[in-house]
Write a structure and sequence with these properties.
Radius of gyration: 16 Å
Pfam family, one: PRC
CATH topology: SH3 type barrels
Domain PRC-barrel: 19-95
Number of domains: 1
Number of helices: 4
Order of helices and strands: HHEEEEEEHEH
Protein name: PRC-barrel domain-containing protein
CATH architecture: Roll
InterPro entries: PRC-brl_dom, PRC_barrel-like_sf
Length: 156
């Protein structure tokens, strides 16, 4: 665990994570571990109550944004590669094909906890609200497949 209130030297500052605007992430490609393109980030969903990014909305298929299928991907399932301007998702095209999806003109009712639970269960992730507000340095190990913490967690 990192030492709190420890002075940071200038060399360490250069290695620290950088800030990025949410708008800059829209349009980033999402690829799997085999570097196959799965789609692009269409939108980002923020839980304003807990102050965390909840989902990256993945757009797949269609033509020029028309007829795309949208997938709410738990933010913790996406690994950002800012140098390559892409995200990595540990899922093949078959898994994505069977994932819960929706159309641009028919977003799901995100006020229902059951919807969130189904999404997180599908991707074998702990629900984001279990970690909302936790610090990166805190011990948040889970017994799930989801190792905690990950540096791509975003706290607003």
């Amino acid at each position: 665990m990192a030492e709190l209130n420890k002075p940071i030297n200038e060399e360490e500052v250069e290695d620290m994570e950088k800030l990025i605007k949410v708008n800059d992430l829209e349009g980033y490609e999402v690829k799997n571990l085999d570097n196959d393109k799965l789609g692009k980030i269409e939108d980002i969903v923020i839980d304003y109550h807990n102050g965390v990014i909840a989902y990256g909305i993945l757009s797949v298929g269609g033509f020029l944004g028309i007829g795309d299928d949208l997938y709410a991907i738990p933010w913790r399932a996406l690994t950002l590669d800012p140098k390559e301007e892409k995200f990595i998702l540990d899922a093949d095209k078959e898994k994505l094909k069977d994932a819960p999806s929706f159309k641009k003109e028919r977003w799901p009712d995100m006020d229902k906890r059951e919807w969130h639970t189904n999404i997180h269960t599908y991707y074998s992730m702990q629900p984001y609200w279990r970690f909302a507000g936790s610090m990166i340095d805190q011990d948040t190990q889970s017994k799930d497949k989801d190792p905690q913490p990950r540096m791509n967690d975003t706290y607003l």
